[in-house]
Amino acid sequence: MKLAVLLAAVLFWLAAWAFNEWLVRRRFASPAAERAARIAVPLLFGVTILVLWEGTVRGFSIPSVLLPPPSMIWARLTGSLPTLWADFRQTFLKSVLTGYALGCGLGFVVAILIDRSPFLQKGLLPLGNFVSALPVIGVAPIMVMWFGFDWQSKVAVVVIMTFFPMLVNTVSGLAATSHMERDLMRTYAADWWQTLIKLRLPAAWPFIFNALKINSTLALIGAIVAEFFGTPIVGMGFRISTEVGRMNVDMVWAEIAVAAVAGSAFYGAVALVERIVTFWHPSVRGGQA
């Protein structure tokens, strides 16, 4: 029976691989069919991984404490929705979103100030590179000591992790315009603010959104890791560390699945906003073509 399950999973994987290869090489006349094919390829690939995972675990009788099958993780996930929602609300809705907004917002504002001050540019950017290299496992305990065990200390960790990527990318984006473009704005008698809003800031949007996408994943990682060092009895990081000690690995994987879905959705939302705001950029126009 176990060998049959493994064989069925392998056969499904081979069939799905062949179908995906056919979808990738096929050119559809309808734009809607082309979009559906682009969506179907990663979805089918993900389903294939889950089926192969299930068949491998059951076929080789891998203990669930080492690697639970997806069916077991799904059962735990659907049976623990109130707990998972409370953890999600504590970690993502409070710590991640608040810290993300504060860190990215402060990084953007300080980048504007640095652009106006060569002194800050020479003094703060090297310090930013130093702080951004600090490990989160070293910063998190200090933030817990400063701000307490609740979500405020996790927000502080997220702010530190997201501030400097936004700062560095925004400064680089503001410097991306050429001297010829700035000279053209001066010939129109544009002052610094007009040049910033009409020329330099639009040119910096791809850099800014690059930082926003990077920070969407850094914020979630930082909040979860920070919860390992002290938190109320709720939160995704708290649940992972606690359930690992209890050998409830299926619950750990359920939390990981929720974090992965939340992080992917957050990243996708930022990328969607980027396509709307930077519709004029060659990379976006090329993708639409």
Automatic annotation (TrEMBL):
It is found in: Cell membrane. Residues 105-275 form the ABC transmembrane type-1 domain. Keywords: Cell membrane, Membrane, Transmembrane, Transmembrane helix, Transport. The chain crosses the membrane at residues 37-53, 97-115, 127-149, 155-176, 218-240, 252-273. It holds the Pfam family BPD_transp_1. Its main location: membrane. Gene3D superfamilies: MetI-like. It is a multi-pass membrane protein. This is ABC transporter permease. It comes from Shinella pollutisoli. The lineage of its organism: Bacteria, Pseudomonadati, Pseudomonadota, Alphaproteobacteria, Hyphomicrobiales.
